[in-house]
Amino acid sequence: MIDLATASAVVTGAASGIGEGIAQRLLERGASVVLGDLDAERLAATAARLEQDHAGRVAHVAGDAADADHVAALIAAAGDVDLYVANAGLFRGFGLEASEPDWSTAWDVNVMGQVRAAQALVPGWVERGSGCFVSTASAAGLLTQLGSPTYSVTKHAAVGFAEWLAATYGDQGVQVCCLCPMGVRTDMMREGETSEDATGRLAMKSVVTAGATLTPLDVADTLLAAVEAGTFFALPHPEVGTMYARKAADTDHWISGMQRFRSSLEP
Question: pTM for the full model?
Answer without folding.
Answer: 0.93
